Sequence to fold (311 residues):
Amino acid sequence: MVGIPALTPVVVRIDETISSNRNKPGDRFRISVAEDVRVGNAVVIPAGSAGEGEVIHAAKSGAGGKAGELILAARYVRVGDVEVRLRSFIIGVVGKDHSADALATSFIAGPFAMFVHGGVVVVPRDTQGLAKTATQLQLPSVETKEGEKNESIPD
Amino acid sequence: MNRYLISAGLASLLLMPLAAVSQDGAAAAPAAAAASGNTGTVVFFREKKMMGMAVSFKVRENGVELCKLGSGSFCTVQVPVGKHEFVTQTEAKDVLNLEVESGDTYYVQASISMGVMAGHGNLAPSTKDAFEGMKAKLKDNTGKDLDPPESKDHKK
Fold:
């Protein structure tokens, strides 16, 4: 078993498209780990581990130049039977405010301005962001495909 | 319960040394949050603009006033970890849902758009960069011009 400190960074991929005009607070969406998480040389959370995120805030674009708004959170990813809780992935995005210059923002992941279309915020599938593990935990080391290949190479 | 926690958070904010919240609101706040361990920091800010500059509005949660925002001002507020629903009401009501994690800082930009009489206040998620970019021109209004939490009058 390998100890994973709390607040270990985890690169997370959003596996479905989220829209400020279509989704509402409480909606769950699929996420997965985009890059292996390592402690030392050991892979503890392999890329591809699936989990779930939640829409925290969604506001439709509206009359009077009101921009769409979206805040997302990564909840957990599953590694074997263990649910690894995540935090600090909250992504807030605001669409184009027609009463002023365009404004697109996010709490942590930066480049969401490109996802704003006519005031509606659309976070496309495969968008990546950075989350952190919520608590300290112990996980078994997972062999990567690369590691397996290395082990199978004959002398 | 939530109202009690907000009141407690607001009270602790008012008791903090002034330097901790006003010299470098966003930077100083996490240290305070980390110290308490179960709170996060929300920075509400409003850009200085001609449009709607005569109108100020308050940010509330469960009827408790957290911040009064005039044109070109900001407030730094400590809140308990968990889900929050921040509300501003001028001609129309606007709600921002936020989930606060321990020690994290969140930025909320307030603005006002055209209305029939007083305009529509809006709260939207924002970034540290957006806040830092205009902070020098903003007045720190943390804890100022607020009715006591006990007040029954929640209207502006």
User: Anything to note?
Assistant: Chain A has one helix and 14 strands.
